[in-house]
Write a structure and sequence with these properties.
The chain has about 140 residues and is mainly α. Helix content is about 45%, strand content about 5%. It folds into 2 domains: about 5-75, no CATH class; about 85-139, no CATH class. Helix 1 runs antiparallel to helix 2 (about 25-40) and helix 5 crosses helix 6 (about 120-125).
Length: about 140
């Protein structure tokens, strides 16, 4: 039994006995259960206003890791820069587009000899697992 289900069961058993020594409101319990369910589903919380210091419950929202990353990007709080803006990038945006355009015409091993990356990186670009933000418009 999940922790959220156990909490709901325990609370419902206590509810008919008001003289018991518990001081938890139904609203607080529902919020607590909601938070535990989100943790069980491996969700992350993020701030709706984009301010990471504003942890007021009305400002927090649960979402998937992908939604959390999109929210960071929307509020321009991404830590790493993408593409040509990243100084550690081995491939320029044009290189990635060229590699993607050659999909099916040359092997990844042959391309990896032309560019300073391994063949697995070439395959990941072709399969949309790397640099998908750049190649999704090329389809």
């Amino acid at each position: 039994m999940k922790l959220s289900e156990q909490l709901r069961k325990d609370f419902s058993e206590l509810a008919p006995y008001p003289n018991r020594n518990y001081k938890i409101s139904q609203d607080y319990l529902n919020k607590l259960i909601s938070d535990i369910q989100a943790l069980e589903e491996k969700l992350a919380h993020y701030q709706m206003d984009g301010n990471p210091l504003n942890n007021h419950p009305d400002n927090l929202q649960w979402g998937t890791a992908k939604e959390n990353a999109e929210d960071r990007s929307n509020h321009e709080r991404t830590i790493t820069k993408r593409g040509d803006d990243n100084s550690r990038n081995k491939l320029s945006n044009e290189d990635v587009k060229h590699i993607y355009s050659l999909k099916g015409t040359i092997t990844a091993t042959a391309l990896s000899k032309q560019y300073p990356v391994c063949y697995q990186t070439i395959c990941k670009i072709w399969n949309g697992k790397k640099k998908a933000w750049l190649t999704k418009t090329l389809n």
